Fold each of these.
Amino acid sequence: MTNIVYISAGSNIGDRAENIRRGIGMLADMGDIVILDQAGYYETAPVDYVDQPWFVNTVFKLSTRLSPSRLLARLKAAERMMGRKTGGIRFGPRILDFDILFYNDLVMNTPWLVIPHPRLHCRGFVLYPLMDIGPDLVHPVLGKTVKELTDDLDGGGGECLLMTGRQEALCAGN
């Protein structure tokens, strides 16, 4: 069975957009993953730990036959290949960060993986890019569309500035 998965990507070290492009490219090169769509790039204020540079964030859609845990292992492998170190400040600076937002309409809660992502509904840096490619996606726990969740932010969730539109991001990344 082919699974449809939405992934968030962020970086705030070095050439942030290039880090994301390279990371997504690595995933596609690993096999068993096909990139289907990608949002624009957004420059976003840090959330939770704010004493750090702004991030660049995007969301992309992929298809895969990998299980959630095997996909997570691939995402973490790509982060490591890009130079991400473990440990450090929670929500602190990072060269690359991938998170599974939605995996079909799966609801999963394990010590190492929660799907849908437990904070996506309150994170502008996730919801605004997700609006580019999936405004009608329904959160399987909250029962609201991405558009409704974005409307509910009401100015919260961190400041987001569009850097490149969706079409520009696709051309640069593929």
Note: The longest strand covers residues 55-64.
Amino acid sequence: MRAILTLFFRYLYTTLAWSYDAVAWLSSMGQWRTWQTAALCIYPGPVLELGHGPGHVLLDLENAGNQVIGLDPSPQMSAMANRRRKQAGASFALVRARAQQLPFAEDFFCAVIATFPTEFILAEETLNECFRVLITGGELIVIGLHEITGKGVFDRFASLLYRFTGQSGEQDPNWRTPLENSGFTVSLESVDQPRARIHRLRGVKHRAD
């Protein structure tokens, strides 16, 4: 059952992309968009979002005052984000590509952000590419697992569902290792929200001595 649910969530990025927002809202009991706000910040330079999905975070980042580029390999998600951009009159850029081969120059972004990504985010190729495109002092921000702290029956159901798919749980110190192997200085952080605790993995690129 866990494998079936995991496969279903992956299809949400392709053939079932039209249902993504509804499924995310229902499965999180309305918390999904609140969880994503744990990634928001104002940066002094360009920001890249990996796996931008339907474009909500891109719009949030731009509205906060950032210069934003979104990257996603899914044509369905690119189309959805493009519609959202046009409807909002936004200017964020969209690029169809894989995180393992970023089509950007070295030392370009102030931040690279991924909210609730799949396992691609911890692949060596992905992390090496993120390190390459970040400026010195730039940050890789990964909003990963979460703990649903709400006590209502629906919150308990959502917590069980996400734990079943491996998307909810406590912080694991081993998360540091892949980022450190790619050269990042790593910190694990938690963001408390009204009905959840969001775990944030932050990797900073420092100049080699």
Note: Strands lie at 47-50, 68-71, 93-95, 109-115, 134-148, 184-193, 196-205.
Amino acid sequence: MKQNQKENKTLILAIESSSPTCSIALSEDDKIIAEITLFKKNLHDKVLANLIKQLLSNLNLKVEELNAVAISAGPGSFTGLRVGASLAKGIAFDSNIKLIPIPTMEGIAISSAIYAKQLNCSNIVAAIQSHQDLFYLQEFDTSGSQLSEIKMLNYQETKNIIQDQTLVIASNKFTDFGINLEYFNSLKASFLLKPAYDKFLNNLYVDSNSFVPLYIQDFKLKKSNKSE
């Protein structure tokens, strides 16, 4: 397993571009050491590459010292996913740097698991708005393990399956039911680092040449019945 020769640490760069947020973060082993997040919408193609250069320069690191790059794999914005994937694949291409895609909802759920347990929640639901009144939704247990496949539901259908003790990780629209954490209303790259480090230790990376994000139109989404 290749490691950073200066510090003998595993360095992972995370890129979040699946949402309007533009965010990058860096970890040494399982510790987050830096993060840059811009909450102004849709800046990915303009600033993401420069943010990576800035972060590495501030830490006196070179790209080739990275062990892996983790990418938020979707679902989410088509343009944002394309920009993030292109950068991540470029970093990993023809090098020893590993590419680790993290499904966006999985990253959210794993990062919120500690709060779900502290609040005695029964489960976790991650919801990402697609368009109009439709949302991508996935259910997890309180450790962040997947309980369901991704579904596309409208607001009322989503509300019907959320229990009082469900930790809801979504936009402000969902604050009227379940338990909602405002901290998670904007996605950040640091959410990806814990699952990315676990995957790195278990050699769960992908070929950078063949990686394709989870684009919206590629999903085989399940529409739930109102009785669910």
Note: The chain has a mean pLDDT of 86.
